[in-house]
Write a structure and sequence with these properties.
Length: about 850
Amino acid sequence: MEQAQQWAGAGGHDAPAPRDGEDGRSGTALELLVHGVGGTTPAEMLDDPRTVRVTGDHIAAVFRRAEDADAESRPEDYRGRPVPEAYVWCNLTSGNGTRALWLLLLPFMVVNLAHWMRPSARGRTRTVRLYGLLVRLAGLTLTVLLVAGACEVALDLVAWQCAGTRACAERHSWLGFLSPVMSDGGWWSTPGRRLALAAAVPAALAGLLWYLSLRTWRAYESQQPMDREDGPGDGQEAAPADGHGVAPEEDRGTVPEEGQVTVPGEDPAHTALGRPGFWYGRRLVARLRAAHTAAALLTVAAAVGAPAARFDRRPGGPALLDTLGWLLMAALAAGAVVVVAVVCRRGRSERHLDRELDRRLVRHLPLAALALFVLALLYGGWSRPGWSSAGRLPGDMTFGGIVLVQGLLVVALAVVAHLLHRSRPDARAAIRGLGGPAVAMLACALGGVMSGGVAQRVSDWLDGTGTSIDGPPVLLTWQASVIPPLLVVVLLLCAALARHTWRLARAERDDIESDHPGEAGDPGRTRRIALTRALATLTDRAPLLVAIVSATTLLLGAGALVGALTTDRAPADAARGTYAVVHGAAETAQALGSWLIGLGFILFVTWGRRAYKDASARRTIGILWDVGTFWPRAAHPFAPPCYAERAVPDLTWRMATWTRATGGRLVISGHSQGSVLAASAAWQLESSARKRVALLTYGSPLERLYGRWFPAHFGPAALGSLHEEVDCWRNLYRTTDPIGGPMRLPGDPGPDVDRPPLKDPLTYGRTELHPLPAPILGHSDYQADPAFAEERRRLLARLRPDVPGPRQTGRAPSVPAADGGTTGNC
């Protein structure tokens, strides 16, 4: 490996690759294996218990078999076989126990996904920017909502209501020093000082979010991608710079900017994932982190200062405090305007490595918000004779305002997404291009359930009888009450899907028996295979499920908001005096909703606690992050870290240095999510290196999931361009696989990518070679299929030391495959 690093250092960016035959190295081929979700071990990937780490660290690294550690110094030993390497990245998503804290960031991760679900667009630059702007604003409302939920618990329920009520304070003796009665008018017993002390809880939450964002950036996303010789966009000229020294800002992964020059002969279907700065969002994350941290602190400052300012505005109040209150509210409003402006304008470019950092903004904006927070604490804690806490904390309609803004943003986002989809229709796009708005709606609902659930549980804990304090705002009770109707809709959908799956399984039985003529039938085995195939198709039904659940959530949320605003009472109280069935349904929904939201909160805490202590549970959570945190943090800086900003540069560096140092070519072999990383890394290569790479994917969600849900980046045009630019690409899949599927490339782009579906199980009944029943593999163990070795052998045969194999301009001639089908001759 040291020899390889020496060759890489000698053959830098400007050095030509060694000619064929130089140093005897050009015949060496590399097979780079990339695992999928859930991770694995180097020994399992390389099928050898003796492995060594050749480059990388404890988070992500490349491994070889011990006998291949010095393969570069013995090229003659690898004339007829490749050097196998395994890239292991599972620790990026399932490491130590602190990852359990990432569960708090789940709504932020979901809204960040909505940013990347933008439909493909043609000539709609401003509309694309508006789409990204709306998602970023929705992400900002989630930050405010989460901090407002913490303020509701700490300031309203604990400090204002319970500490200010004798019965509640006596029930919880630890609140005695805050109670005016139990402390006999102690120093902390005034309402303003109680609020100032309780503000430490939401302020600590804001600090924790800031710390997690900063720490995870340094640990996972600070890897700079490789500089490219052919400049921005792989042959594209950068757009004219604006007054800040960067190209006019656009959403990460958008259509070309106005003024972009296209090089003659360039394929306009290049995906944004090939831009040099796509996987390096330091400036963007830093700006958004500063803005969201400031928004969180301003929210807490408003929660402390607004009640005091309202009390000072009473007739006969002190003029000085009234004036200070108005000045504080004006300063907080100005700070909010600045935060929104920063979120609206991100100021970065993907067309080159953006190493700049807006240091003044990143430092001064959170510090200014912190200063206003401290001033709000001083102002709110000032002595005010005659001020007492009664009822709920003034300003409880904050939640109603947040919900209203979120609903309007989702509706506007749906309109923009529809316009983008119409400009370039894609029949395979999920929900006809409305996947982003649907997921954004679910993110807002998830944030509301988390914040409302905590408030509901704390209220029940403080006052189980419901007689001493008023409890959380009415809107939160209405939101909990709409959960049972939503679950009814979900259950009906699940029943419909189960019925469809059962019918499909029955139809599959005849096909299974016809695939194995001459063999004795086994009804039980046939049913199992048919059911596995039918269940695998549920993945393709996910867009329908998400669309209906999201639309139902929007309608029920709007109904809850209207009910709370018009009645200002809980659903059961508002329905009192109506028909008995209506009142009974309202009472049932309210009680059941409170119970369900409490159960969900308990499960959430239990799961997080288990993940903190149990490595296997933490690994299960890591699978969720494998799918949800592939994308950079473009909409929300507090989302879990993007592991691809570490993994993609790692793979790109490894492939580029190998081809440059040895003059050889390589096969990058990716399973499941590893195929997405492999494709992304191939797009990041220089065009000359990309032509020396063959791609083998199996169990790949590239088209089935990413192509449908993220059409702007993995749509048909993007995948078709990747097929044309790499030396060869072959894809393996099974009909029993719920994740992987065919690529379905449009037109006639050349050699076939998709091999006919692999048989699963490999044998139907008992044979001489397989005396025991073969298992149904589904998404796993693709390497156990003979077709895998066959396709790898074909790809490696193309990696001869002279020149890349000729690409067919038409469809490649078909040759017999091991499973009885045909395969394109790459």
